[in-house]
Amino acid sequence: MSIAVYVVAGEVSGDTHGAELMEALQGEWGEVSFRGLGGAEMAAFADGAVEDWVDDAAVVGVWEVLRRYGWFKERFDRALADLLDWKPDVLLLVDYPGFNLRLAKQVHERAPEVRIVHYVAPQVWAWNKRRIPQIAKTHDLMLCLFPFEVPLFEEAGLRSRCAGHPLVDELEEKRIGGTGHLTREGGSTRLSNTVGLFPGSRSREVSRLFPMMLEAVHRLVDFLDEKSELRFVAAAASDKVGRVMRAALAQSALPEGLIEIQDGGSQVLMQQATCGVVASGTATLEAAYYGMPYCLVYQVAWPTYLMARQLIKLPYIGLINILAEREVVPEFIQSEANSYEVALWLGRYLKDLQLREDLSAELLEAASRLGEPGTHQRAAREVALLLSK
């Protein structure tokens, strides 16, 4: 049996997850025709039938979207027309709620025979639960990353399943074993007295947080007696981010050689660092999965923060704290994300092995709720089951 699937993803992470799910669907059905919008990985898998638009579509913030409203409207109208003309069996939406929820509404109204599946549930539970009944009216299946999301959508009458988090598969592939030069500490393989710095993946975010991290390092080496033994390693998420970080380091007062900036390799560093500082986002889940003791830091422009606080009613911003439903890692937010607080936290945890072991155990326990490997295969089976009905 052949099925037709129109896929839409608008960010790099969605492109990765989308391509993996497309492969799993191919394995489930044997013959699948794909069309749609995504990134380089999805386009490659579909032999160009999926258009790579991620570089232009992945914008952050209300203002950026409004500035490019005409471009987004043109792409929306084109995608909708393509969908209505092709009439696939499934419209598969991967995250990207601003665009995808509107597209789902239009397709539901104008082509109700098309089954609508959303992979990576929109986090409306964080900013507007009133949207959930509206989503339930337009969607046929919601594939959630977190267990607590399922009842929120099912109570509104939407078939929902927790397939687990795709990160689990990706992080398991990057898990390292013990090697001769590593020191055994607290039951895990970690380098001695190594602090990992993870300032984020976006240049603007990094330009705010990394100078603060550098200042925290400066304070920390003054706090600790064994400062000569400390090693600091910062992970750059991309070449562009690396240039921002190196420019900030060059402008700092830190001695040459104290901080190493490495391109990529953040998952390896998370498995080796004694402890670390991590910018809010997916990296906090990655660090938790590997049990690296860390504190979370978050800074945005104050108008953006104040507007977000009006919309988001959750007690935490860290994904691992939300998942655990308690504060597992400390959250240094806005003015609290300063060099003094961060250096103080690092100093305590570098000096106290028991603190590190306790936090590592709590992180591993919370991260276990992300599920087992095989996320994309479970998601593909749910789509197949939906179509069989």
Explain how this protein is built:
With 389 residues, the chain is α/β, with parallel strands linked by helices. The chain folds into 2 domains: 2-164 and 372-388, Glycogen Phosphorylase B (Rossmann fold), CATH 3.40.50; 171-370, Glycogen Phosphorylase B (Rossmann fold, 3-Layer(aba) Sandwich), CATH 3.40.50. It is built from 19 helices and 15 strands. The protein has helices at 12-29, 40-45, 54-57, 62-67, 69-86, 97-110, 124-127, 131-138, 149-154, 166-173, 203-223, 239-251, 266-272, 282-289, 302-311, 319-324, 339-351, 353-367, 375-388; strands at residues 2-9, 31-38, 50-52, 90-94, 115-119, 141-144, 160-162, 183-185, 188-190, 194-198, 231-236, 259-263, 275-279, 294-298, 331-333. The strands form 3 sheets. A 7-stranded parallel β-sheet has the order 3-2-1-4-5-6-7, sandwiched between helices. Strands 12-11-10-13-14-15 form a 6-stranded parallel β-sheet, sandwiched between helices. Helix 14 (282-289) links the parallel strand 13 (275-279) and strand 14 (294-298). The longest helix is centred in the middle third of the chain and has 21 residues, at 203-223. The protein starts with a strand and ends with a helix.
